Amino acid sequence: MSGLRMSRLRMTGDRWGDVATYLLLGVLGVFFALPFAWLLSLAVRTPAEVYLGAARFIPQAPTLDNFALILSDPAFLTYLWNGLKLSAAGATLAVLLAIPAAYAASRLDFKGKNAILVGILAVQMISPLVILVPLYRWMVALDLLNRDLSVIAVYGALGMPLAVWLLKVTFDAIPKDLEEAAAIDGASRLTTLLRITLPLARPGIASAFILAMVTNWSQFLIPFILLERDGDWPISVAIFNFAGSTSASTTQVLAAACIVAVLPAVAVFVALQRMIVSALVVGAVKG
Amino acid sequence: MTAASPARHSRGPAPADGHPLPWLVPAVAVLALFYAIPVLDVFRLAFSDASLLAPATRVTTDAVRGTLTDPALLSVLGTTAVFTGITVAALQLMGLAIALVIIRGEDRGLPGMAAFRTLVLAAWVVPGIANGLVWGMLFDEAPYGTLNSLLGSVGIGPVAWLSDPQMAMVSAMIANLWQGTAFSMIVFYAGRKGIDPVLYEVAELDAATPWQTFRYITLPLLRRLIAVNTILIAVQTLNTFDSILALTGGGPGRATEVLALFTFNTVFYNLDLAGGSVLALLLFGISMVLALVVLRGMGRERAAA
Amino acid sequence: MRAILLTTAAIAALPSLGAAQELIARNRVGLADAPNTLTFSLTAYDLYSSDPATKETFEGLFSDFIAARPDWKIETQLQTASIGQEQARLLQQSQAGRGPDCAMIDSSQLATFIDAGVLKPMNGVFSDDEVADLFPFVRDAVTDADGNVLAWWWFTDLRVLYRDTTVVPDAPQTWEEVQNAALAAVEQGREGILFNGGRWEGTAFDWMANFWAQGGELVDAEGRPVFAQGENREKFLSAIAYYQDLVDSGAAPARVTSITDYDAFNAAAAAGSAAMFVGGNWQYGQLRGTLDEATFANWQVSELPGPTADMRATGTGGWSIAALSDDPEKASLCGEMVKEIYAGAGNAAQGLLPTSAAIYDQFDTYDGPEYAQFSDALQNGVARPGATIYPEISNQIQILIGDVLSGAATPEEALETADAAVQAAYARQ
């Protein structure tokens, strides 16, 4: 009797919980969706209506011309491709560098471990903002200016600290027994890492990769200062080409470009969301 | 697999020994070559008279003295503390709340959870310039401004979103929250998912209230994650300037001019490379102290546990 | 993914390009195998504009230019719209010896580049008459003491007072008339007058007209900041009091301290909320495109009012093009490009204000009545001072206006703070 009553009580309790869930998500949903609604509103305007700004939400003469203009511009595709290439390569480098470092931090005891970990974190704390000028001169000296490699290397250095942290957490969560068993079988540490630890850490690697890639995707200053040729620019820099001039506003084109630029990153998210999530699950708490 | 093959050597490496150097060299080398060397240059520039117009000609502490005694610096630091403190707290709360609610929804099989998660993530990748564009229209204080029109229809307002110094700060934080929540959400979502479900089953058997479950299971187990997330978010927030630049430019007056924006203005508006370098080092110092304090707190907690 | 598919389809569907366009590529003008190369750093406002009509006109101009010089090709480098960073990058590039041969430079930054010694003379291209025909403030900015032409300022702009004649029939000539007209408009449910008051360059620049109208000077002949000294101090404070009174009396809404964009005025005009605003000449064309014909007919421009009807000034901006190459042949080509493409045909195509009187007569574009107003107002045009300290002065004025209008500081306090900050920065330069 009482058990039945309790479960009925809980049933109604859960129902109310569902209502509360949707209520909260509804409010937050409006908060997160409203800016997109405005971006879309701008993106489908004609030049005549774009100056109405916030004065009109639904355009009288909505048009897809802005999207057509963006998508028919071969340069736009190049920018998207450059963005994808640079951010993916930079993220790959960050993860490749982070794997051995995170492994050492997780599996080896050595003096000054914390100092080194904090040191790696510290480097990331200097904003690209001010090292730009030294960075520019340094890349000129290394003869890397205007080469993708310069941007990729800096992305690698910038993205590594977060990747080291994420991967250390992931490695910590993988039981040492497995490695010890392999070690008894005579496998070297490198072999153990490659054959046993890394496959198990795949989700963690994926999440580190994705977080690094997203950060790179929206980087402006670094590619801006290191790549001087328009054809080399990623979308995050080139998007400023669509900002208006005094004689003709192109805000509507800019808005359309922003929406299109978001899509590839969202596509990556949707495809890999499951992987990010399962990755962090492995060891987030134990970390 | 290795485990299945017969032993060829009697002993492999023990778990905790081995030289760390080979493992660390690639990371440290790239960091040093492509980032640390330019960073060292910042130290040199801070003690020079360099500007974007002319390279350094001498070693001097003029820039250090001039920058640190600038009366504006104090108000900028105050603004930075308020902006960073509240933003970091809000980002964590919002990220945590969304993560927990989404997980609840998923556990109950409610539809729409993945869509909501994607929406939050999409805000993260919107180009900064779009952030300024749309929030500028939302906060527009003209009679037709979006938020004020919405509030007006229910009899509230109008709110001086951007023209009032205090309110402008709140608005800048809201716009930043919109873009930044995704990161915390991912971290906490994963953290909460990683908690052993058995604990929640036990709590349910004990008829614990949702608050008790949160207070005595979720929160304690997420504490370390919260600490690490605090460092990461605080450093990101301290270095945020583009969304503020696009929304208020730092104004009205200096009401929303945070240290990162002040640094940006010093370098790119006043072309003062030496002064900008001093400010960059100050920013770095603050980040570092913050990180050490949090890490220390974490270490103490672990020792106590 | 869909975006990429769509793009691929769009590219495949493109018609084969005409002969004229083969000369124009995304990063080049001219034939790829031409023996000589001029590198040109330009904004995305003309040849690579997102506005198809503008783009087409400039493609034609560039094609003609390069067809007459088959030995040359122009390698183009786009500048982004973040002017501050572009300027910093251009300075870095030229100091590292990697700068472009020819570049577009915002007129307000010309002095910085001239001081940095990176601009090379283009003397042979422009005759003495052509230089003499430039507006005085333009001529002063582009020539040095020895008469070298270091840049060509190819279009200018200015600030004027826009009004809706249904609410404000007669153009206010003085500050007092502005306030009265604005207050009358407020009684009819309008926002009296709008102006830039947020934290950006436009705020300081638009306001300076009120200071200049009284003969105020920001810097002295040596480039020392003197805006808070002697007579300048009084002039400064009275120009600030003008703005402060507008806001305190309700003639201007408090929201002006949030306006960091001229486009906000277009929106207010379109929504019918504002009766007057201090805007740029280029907004006239924008309003024509945005408002319906009847509403547009109600909007008129007039010279910015002064403290009295005969004390007037207006800030003038615009863009210039300068040579950075040591090679005299390239410097000349840069100058010829300005002359044949930008100053003249390029002005007319975009309705931009030419910097020399002769061009106004040359093109039909300038027959409209608004251009008569503009060229009258240009008589009182003042350019920003060509001093290295200018950006900091502007920065401090932006802060001052925000603080005073939002009530965070009194004008006197704010002026003390601004002056102390500017003097400290000047001492370190």
UniProtKB/TrEMBL annotation, chain A:
Pfam families xrefs: BPD_transp_1 (PF00528)
Gene3D superfamilies in alphabetical order: MetI-like
Subcellular location: Cell membrane
Organism whose genome encodes this protein: Loktanella fryxellensis
Domain ABC transmembrane type-1: from-to ranges: 80-272
Alphabetized CDD domains for the sequence: TM_PBP2 (cd06261)
GO BP annotations, alphabetical order: transmembrane transport
Name recorded for this polypeptide: Carbohydrate ABC transporter membrane protein 2, CUT1 family
InterPro entries: BP-dep_ABC_trans_perm, MetI-like, MetI-like_sf
Mode of membrane association: Multi-pass membrane protein
Main location group: membrane
Family: Belongs to the binding-protein-dependent transport system permease family.
Keyword GTP-binding: no
TrEMBL record, chain B:
Source superkingdom: Bacteria
CDD domains named among the record's database cross-references: TM_PBP2
Keywords: Cell membrane, Membrane, Transmembrane, Transmembrane helix, Transport
GO biological process: transmembrane transport
Locations listed in the record: Cell membrane
Transmembrane segments: 21-40, 81-103, 115-138, 169-190, 273-295
Membrane topology note: Multi-pass membrane protein
Name of the protein described by the UniProt record: Carbohydrate ABC transporter membrane protein 1, CUT1 family
Automatic annotation (TrEMBL), chain C:
Pfam families linked to this entry: SBP_bac_1 (PF01547)
GO MF, any single term: maltose binding
Signal peptide region: 1-20
Keyword annotations of the record: Signal, Transport
CC terms in the record's Gene Ontology section: ATP-binding cassette (ABC) transporter complex, substrate-binding subunit-containing
Keyword Signal set for record: yes
GO BP term (any one): maltodextrin transmembrane transport
Domain of life of the source: Bacteria
Keyword match Cell inner membrane: no
Family, similarity comment: Belongs to the bacterial solute-binding protein 1 family.
Annotated protein name in UniProt: Carbohydrate ABC transporter substrate-binding protein, CUT1 family
Source organism (scientific name): Loktanella fryxellensis
